[in-house]
Each structure stands twice: as structure tokens, then as C-alpha cells.
Amino acid sequence: MKWAFWRRERRNEELKEEIEAHLLLAEREALESGMTKKEARQIARREFGNVGVTEEVTRDMWGGRWLFDFFYDLRYAVRGFRQRPGFVAVALLTLALGIGATTVMFSLVSGVLLKPLPYQQPDRLVAVNGHTEGWNEKIYGEQKLAYLDFLDCRRESHSLDLAALVYNSGTLSAPGAPQYVDYFEISSNLFSVLRVPLAVGRAFLPEEDNIGAARVAILGYSFWQRHFDGKGNVLGSSVVLDQKRYTIVGVAPAGFRLYGNEPELYTPLGQDAAGYLRNRAAQPVHVVGRLRSGATLRQAQAEVGLTGSHLAQAYADTNKGRSLQVKRLEPPVGDVGSILWLLLGAVGLVLLIACANVASLMLARAISRERELAMRVALGASRGRLVRQCLTESALLSLLGGGVGVMLANWSLHPFLTFWPGDLPRAEEVQLDWRVLVFTVAMSVLTSVLCGLAPAWRAPVREVEQTLRAGARTLTAGTRRLHAAFVVSEIALAIILLVSAGMLGRALLHAASLDPGLDIRNLLVMRVGLSPATLADPAKIPAGWQDLVNRARNVPGVQSATAVDIVPMRQGNNEYGYWTTADVPPENKQPMALASSATPDYLKVMGIPLLEGRFFDDHDRLGSEPVIVVDDVLAKSAFGKQDALGKSLWIPNMPCPQPNINKFVECSAPFKIAGVVGHVRYWGLAGDDQAQLRAQFYYPFAQVAPPFLNRWSQLMSIAVRTTVPPLTLVEPLRRELRGAAGDQVLYQAHTMEELAHESLAMQRFLLLLFGIFAGLALVLACIGIYGVLAYLTGQRVPEIGLRMAIGASPANVTWLVLRQSLGMVFLGIGIGAITAVAAGRILESLVEGMQPTVLSTLVTMVPFLVLAAMLASLVPARRASRVDPMKALRQE
Amino acid sequence: MLILQTLQWAPRHGYALSKAIRTNSGEILKVDTGSLYPALHRLERKGWIASEWKTSELGPRLRIYRLTQAGRRQLMSERSRWERLTAAIAGILNPAEKENVP
Prior knowledge:
The complex is a heterodimer of chains A (892) and B (102). Chain A has 892 residues and is α+β, with helices and mostly antiparallel strands. Chain A is 52% helix and 14% strand. In chain A, helix 4 (65-83) crosses helix 14 (383-419), helix 5 crosses helix 15 (434-458) and helix 12 packs antiparallel against helix 17 (477-512). The radius of gyration of chain A is 38 Å and the shape is elongated. Chain B is of the alpha+beta class and 102 residues long. In chain B, strands 1-3-2 form a 3-stranded antiparallel β-sheet. Mean pLDDT of chain B is 76; it is low at 98-102. The A-B interface holds A 14-15, 17-22, 24-26, 28, 47-50, 53-54, 57-58, 60-63 and B 13-16, 32-35, 37-42, 45, 53, 58-63.
């Protein structure tokens, strides 16, 4: 930089010397032709023309002129900032907050939604899904594949290398104390298809992917760290999972996860002889694939589609109507995307308000410098030059603001992530990387243009002499309108955020006041892994659960205990279509209901009111009449005003509770409704009203068909009603439930109060953020109003003096100023209200439990905003009313 | 082009250049010094001419410009373009001549 200046300086001197020489030579020649020295000099000068202009134009030829102008502008801007540290501090802080918050939100959007999958050539990866007509993706998610279908696809595909993955869980009894773990059963080629190298050891071999092959396992990285201290000699040791000993052959790389959380273990999928993996009607298999070199997605789609239709013909009883689809593999992030975009939008609004604020500050500053600028125009500065100077100032400001913003973001990103309610998918990929920095720089540049444009546009070019003559005290109507426009837009933006925050607040209040349908106090739910020995024999499973319930009931402080497969307000569900007559329509036409199986004490433990009839008792078992108990929602939607009690439901997909069967059998008789109970908010306090599936029915756990008992046992929970604070019983229960063999593990213990509270976590989180945003917006808007009014009023002092001199009272003057501010505020509200209604609708569709309260919230927020705006305008108004008319007039 | 052409025979300094152009054109073309120096500096930036400082016996240091290889090529192409242009204009001014050619 210094060097560049120095070089330019030298070139300047050289140019001067060159021209001097030229003049000297011309002069000499003239002398030789016989002129006097004076004449010669004059003629040389005259012939040459304007030395200054020649130098100037020549310098332009060197190039880089803009750069030097830029440095001069920069120096000028810095000098200007030094004179006004207050202005700079406020503007910088505002921009830093705005840009910092936007950067944080964008890091989330970038990491969770925009980043490609962290595998080699992620654009060559695909997922294979099934699709059956009537399949409800909203409830069930993407349809996966049956294991046998996967094997057929893999065999027949020439364009894809396909791998499979099944989520499973079980009891790990060694090493260490027994624990319940999540594991993935994978096809042997999963790691090679994803091109993920193992941290230690090797992947599974193809021959290990068969029933009866040597039992081998790969450890999850975290599990390896926790239980084997990350030691390399782990290969060859073993783990015992569900009573089977597996030899460890490898360790997965750190942070490797494909669906959901990092599992503890991987086992070969082909070794699992479980019945559901041989049943084409069950689709538990995630299928991922990589396009072979030269193959296109279109080829793969055609190929797999063809396989799908072959399967549908060959296995009509299970695969009829099911097609197979190939899509690019997307990171599984669920519906968090809409929330993230929503927050980015909200934070963007705050940034816009910040921009408007800084822009109006800069405009005020530019106007007070109007004479100076006019002078420069008069001296020959071009308009472009002045615009560039204004933009340089704002660019300096916003890039500095961006820098501070990035620091703020860097510092607050991780606290913010831990603050996120529940699990944010791909949270580990959220970081301030180059994408985010590019975004932030772009943001800062945009900000600088937004902030600097107004003052630049104002740069005087016409009527320069008038500006110079008039002095700084006159304001054109155009300028006043520009100022007002800033206030109006700030108010319009603020009202959007205020209404959103208000709506969230009301939704939260509303949801908290709802009746969950059960007594959430003194209620503890926990999952227990049944002893693997019991699980191995389906005949022992019901007794095993009965034993658990009895043990739980005997713990001091427990009033009653039950076993149930689906706990309200916790993830997990099981649905069946039903019909009220034997004439059952096709599956996609049947209404759906949430089904849960429970032991007889369920109502008593949960505190669910029995409305009619009875709940289950010990006489309901395999072989006896299949019974169900429905909730009032189902009773009403199925039978209207008629009494549901004693009627029956046809539930074609529900296995028939017959003893001594080893596969799915459909009931010939319908399920009899034995009782009606109150509705329970299964989907959480906020979500239940809008849930797609609200109807519920219960069936006795004793009537779960034997082939399904093993699977059911993975889903079951124990719930206890206590007489003491529930969490104090976790340890006694853990000890007692361990069982005779000591290998039954209690995990995921929660009180129902916690679950109810968590079901509103997202709403609370959004309310907090929107509350902060709205508060910031309000404060910024008030500062904006204050600044603009103070400035406009200051410019109007002579006018006010005149008014007072001819008889206006201080109250008149106060009102004059307030009226001006009110005008701006109401215009802003008018414009913002339309947008706010639209924003409210978006919120209603994105956030569970929102009530249609846009308009009423708007009505309550308007006075609030007006009041705040009035408070902000009061100070300038009061100041105006104290103007001394004599002094004001003398100033002129 | 004029500058390049004038520099073709010998390196010169600014004043000599302006004089040369004036005398060679029979006092018809007078290069305004206000454009001469900017033009020289622009040509130098484009790499068509190069300059060095020489002390003259007359006293002041003089900046001598000379044609570079790139400048020579540029001159060729500009000259041929110019010649085509003048030929074309001549053709329009004297259409008869052209018809008699075959």
C-alpha cells in the first residue's frame, strides 16, 4: 500500500520532469529563432496548453485511478468516523447484531440443509424407496423396502451398487453392565458403497452376510471410545448382544451416521433370521446405492422401476400396487427445514430494520454535509464520484459490522445449537465455514448498498448554487419523504415480527391451558429391555412383562403400574385402518386410528377417564373374544351420535389374537368395542388438535398375537403412578426391574410432566427467538423514529420559532411533531399489516398448535407499537415545544 | 498510429515527437501536447512502446520513447487496416478507375 503510493509519487515527479523538459526544449527553440527569453517562455507555454490538465489526463492513463480514489475515500471516511464516534458505535453495533444473527441462522441453514452429504461424490448416491398407492408419507415417512425385495433389486441392477441398513435395538450384556443399545444391521457393502473408510479394522465380508455365518460386529466410534478407550487392539475382542457373542472386526469412522443418531454397533444384516426380514409385506430396510460409473440416474430409475413391477406381478399378495423409486440421496433432516427458513426470514427482517436505521442515520449525516458536497460538485466532482464516496463510507461501516458480526456469530453459534429444542439433525455439520463467510460478506456488501444508497442518491448535482446560497437549514420535501420512508419501512417490518411473536405467545398460552387427557402429575414412564432369555421364547414374553409390572408395583412409592406399547407425547406410533361394517373398502379409503396395546391397569395409572363400558381385565386373552376400547374421538367419528358401546370394528390389518399361530392371520370376526374412554393428546399438547390422526383405540396386551410379541417387546414401556416425586423412584425401579438374571435394562425414564413440557419445546423456542427479534425490531424502530424526528425537528426550529412567535402554544408544537410521527407510524402499520397477515398464515401452517389469531393479535399489537413510537417521539416533541422563538428566529 | 509510425525510425522524446509529426505532415497535423502525453503513457501501459531516461547534452534529463516488438506488430496491423480503409475511400471517390481495371 505504502509502496504503491510511493511508486505513484515517483511517477508523478517523472511526469513533471518530462513536461518541464518539453517546455525547456520548446523555449530553447523559440530563443534560437530570435525571441526574447520572456516571449519564448510564453510561446512554449501557450503551445503546450494547460499543464495541470495534461498531467491529470496522463495520470488517468496509468490505470488504477479508481483504486487511488478509493483509498482517498477510505481515508476520508475514516477521518469522518473519528469525528463522530457515537454515530459509528451505534451504527456498528446495530449492523453487527443484524449481520451476526443472520450469520448464525445461515450457518444452520447451510449446515443442515445446503451442505452435501459428507461422502465422496455425494451426487452419485441414491436412495431406493417403495411407493404404494394410499401410502401416507406424512404419517409413516418414506416407504422403505422389504429385505427380500432389496435382494432382488440388488441382483437385477446393472447401474447401481445397492446397500441396505435396518435399525434395530437390543440388550448388550458385555462388556460392562447390561445396557440397551441401538444398532444397525447392514449389508456387507454399506461402507464401500458410501466410500467411507473404517477407522480401524475391516468392513464385513460378503460371506459374513449370510444366515449361520460367523458372528462379527463393527463398533460405532463413540461406543469404541467409551467402552474400549479407543484402543486399537479391540479387534478380536467380543461383545454380547441379545445373548449372542459377536467378534469385533472393525470400528466405524468418527461421526459416521446415515439415518438418525450414531449407532453403538453394526452387525451383518444377512445373518439375521428374523421372520419380518423374510416377509415382503414388512418394509424395514433403508436402501442406498451408488451409480456405477457411466450409469445415469434415469437408467437406474428405469431399471429399478422395472424390477418393482416384476415383483408386484410375481408376489401379488404382498407387492401388489407397490412401485419402486430411485431418488438422489438427501440428508435426512425431516421437517426442520421450514423452521430454519422461517427463522432465517425473521432474522433477515431484523437486519433490514437495522439497515433502514443506519441508512437514515447516514442520510441525516449526508444532509448536514450538503453544503460541503455541493461545494465539491461546484469544484468539479462528478456525481459518480460523490456516490462512490458515500458508498465507501457505508461499505466500510458494514464490512466492519460484518466482521464484528462474524465474531459474535462464532461466539454464539454453539450455545445456540445446544439451546435448540430436541435433536437438530446434522447439527455436527453446522459450522462457520467458507459458505457462511461468503454469505456474510455478500450480506455485508448488500447491507452497505442498502445503507449507502439513500445518501448517495441524495448527493446534490442540480441546483448546486441554490444549495450553496441557501445554507444548510432548508429541507426539501423530497428529503423529508425519504426520512419518513425509513421510519415507515421500519415500522412495517417491526409489526410483522411483533405479530408473529404475539401469535406464538398466544399459541403457547393456549396449548399450556389444554387438558392433556390424562393426569400428568406423579407419572413416570420408562422403557425396559426384556431379558434376552425371555425374548427368545415368545411363549414366555407375556409372563415376562407381567413379572415386570408386578415388580414395579412392589417398589415402595409406586401406586400402580402398567405396560404399554405407545406412550402419549412420545415419538412412536402404530396405526390401523378400520371400518364399521364387514364391507371394508380398500386400504387407502379406510379411516385410520392410533392403536396401542396395554395391560388392564393402564387407565388407572394414566388417569384417563372411562366414559362407558369397561377397560380390559384378565379374562381378555388369546383365544377369547377380541376386544378393543375406543376413545371418544373415534366413537364420534365412526358412529356419530350413536352409542359405540357393544358395536364392532373391522380392522383388516390387525393380527388376530389366536394362540398357536406363527404368522399374520386376519380375524374373521370383527373387534368388539368393550368401552369408551377419554381422548388423550398423543401428539403433544400443541400438535394434537391439528394431527392427521386423532382417533385412538386400545387393545389388550394379552391379545397381541404370538408372532409379534418379540417385535412388540422392543416397543413396550412401563408406566407407574407414584405417591412420591417420580424421579426419586428411577434408581429403585432400575434395581428391582433388573430381574432374576440381572440382565433387564431400564432406559429412557421420563416423567409425563417432562414429556408434556417437551411437546411444547419448539413453540417455546420459537416464541423466545421471535420475542427477541420483535424486541430488537421494536427498539431499533424506536431509535429510528427518535433519530429521524429529532433530526427533522431540529431542521424545523426556525419554522417552529416563527409559529410560536405568531401565537402557537407549546402544546400546539408538541402536537405538530407527534402528528408527524403518527402519520409515519400509521402508514407503516398499514403497509406492515398486510405482510403481517401473510406472515401469520405461514406461521400457522409451519408451527404446530398455532391458532388463527393473526387479526386479533394485530389489533392488540398496534396500540402497543403506537405507544412505543409515541414515547420515542416525545423527547423531540418536547424539545421542539421549548424552542425559544426569539433565539430561533435570530438564527436564521 | 502516428506516434508508433514516427517512433519506427528512431527513439525520440516527447518534444521531438510532436515536432516530427508536425514537420512530416507538412505542418498540417499538429499534435496537441494535451493529448500527446496521455497517449504516450497509454501506449506504454499497453506495452507497445517503452521508455528510458537519458541525459542529454543540452541539460535536462529526457524521457526517450522507443517502439517495442509488440508495438511494431501493432503498427503493421494498424497500417494495413488504414490502407484498406483509404483504398476503400479512394474506390468510392473514383469509381471510374475501378471499372477500367480489368
